[in-house]
Amino acid sequence: MAATINISIGQLAERTGLSVSAIRYYETQGLIFSERSSGGQRRFLRSDIRRLSFVMIAQQVGFTIDQICSQLDSLPEKRTPTKQDWERMGRKFRKELDQKIESLNKMRTLLDGCIGCGCLSLKKCSLYNPQDRASTRGSGPRYLMGDEPEKL
To answer: Which of 42, 80, 131, 140 suits a disulfide with 34, CB 3.0-4.6 Å?
Structure first.
């Protein structure tokens, strides 16, 4: 076993605040990797603390396990990721986060006015969505889904 594999699953759980079962799940998803000791116990790299911390943060901001796995695939398995490794990965996530922020800001703005749902129950609807024009683009809240209102 390599000298860098030096913490047990219990130690990893204690350091990250995750349950042992969650760590096992993340391992099955390919987010972290273990080696077995001569006694059959899982042993992890200390850098897995950082990997799992990243997973927890990424999930909190809405990234899926598949998206997180895709990002972590660019990191080295058997060595501690460098500052440059994390910065490169962070730039990729930053781009996606910026898009999410832009979308959420737009949604917040649209929720203050007409969202093009087709209800026609507000006085504003006669201005923003006359004769339910948004319905010609499909079902659902068309403006909230990204369609732009027609210019009158």
So the answer is: 42
